[in-house]
Amino acid sequence: MKPNNFVSVSQLEEEDFWEIMETAKGLKGDLRAGKAHEVMPGRTLGMVFLKPSLRTRVSFEVGMTHMGGHAIYLGPDDIKLGERETTEDISLVLSRYVDGVMARVFEHEIIEELAEHASIPVVNGLTDFLHPCQALADFFTIYESKRELAGLKMAFVGDGNNVAHSLINAAGLVGMDFSIACPEGYEPDESLVSEARKLTKVEVCHQPEDAVTGADVIYTDVWASMGEEDVAGEKKSRFDGFRVDRNLAGMADSESIVMHCLPAHYDEEISKPVAHGPSSVIFEQAENRMHTQKALLALLMNQ
Prior knowledge:
By secondary structure, the protein is an alpha/beta fold. It has two domains: 9-131 and 286-301, Aspartate/ornithine carbamoyltransferase (Rossmann fold), CATH 3.40.50; 134-282, Rossmann fold. 44% of the residues lie in helices and 14% in strands. It contains 13 helices and nine strands. A five-stranded parallel sheet has the order 7-6-5-8-9. The chain has a four-stranded parallel sheet with strand order 2-1-3-4, sandwiched between helices. The chain is globular and about 55 Å long. The N and C termini lie close together (8 Å). The mean pLDDT is 96.
C-alpha cells in the first residue's frame, strides 16, 4: 500500500483499495474460522476522540486486540487537543510513544495537521468533511453482496455530508455510478463532486425518487450529524419527504440492498421495517468496519 497515512479515500490508487479489500477478506475469514492472525504483536494504536462513537471505538480497539496489538483511548478531556497543547506538539509526542494514530475529530484541518507532523501512520476516524473508514467498510459490504462494484448504481438519500463525500470518492475510484438526493442547499461539496465526475457518473438531484430509481444500493444517514444539534429541528423540516421507507425502496432494483452507517433515527431518515428488513445490510456494514480497519492498520503499520 503506497500511502503512509489514511486521511481520505482519494489518496488511494485502485490497487491500494483492492489490497485493503483482499486483506480484509482474509482477516475476516481467519476470524470466522477461529484462526489466529496476530500480525501486529506488540504494536500500539493511539485513539484520539474528540467525538464519541460506539462503532469507531469498539471496532478499532477490538481489531487491534485480534491482531496481537493494543489500543489506548484518549478522550476529549485526556489531551484537550489544540487547547492545552498544539496539535503539532501532540502529533510529535504521540509519534514517540505509539505505532499509529486514529483520530475522530470535528474540523478536518485537525486530521490534516496531525498527519503532517506525525512520523507514524495517521488514520482519519471521522471529520466534519470526510469519513473514509466508513466508506471502506461500505464498499467491502457491497462487494460481499454483489460480487462486483464497477457499473453498479448507489443512491444516497439525505445530507451531502462527510459520509456522502467519502462514498463519492470511493465510487469514483471503482467506477460506481453515484446519485444523491438532497434538499436544495444541502448538496455535497462542489469541488469534490467535480473531481469524482472525471472518473464516474455523479448526479445531484432534489427528488429522492430520481436518485433511487433503478439503484443497486440505497444509502442514507442521519439528517443532523453530531455537533449539529442546534439545526436538527430545521433539518428535520427541510428533509421531510427524504425518508427511506418501503415505498421509496421499492423504486430501486429488485435485488437492491439498503445501507445506513448508524446510529439510525427511525422514522426520520429511514423506517425501521426497511432498516431491519430482508434487503438491509446495515449490521454487516457495522461488523465490516472492524475487518476493513484491521486490514488498513495492518497495511499501514507494517510498512
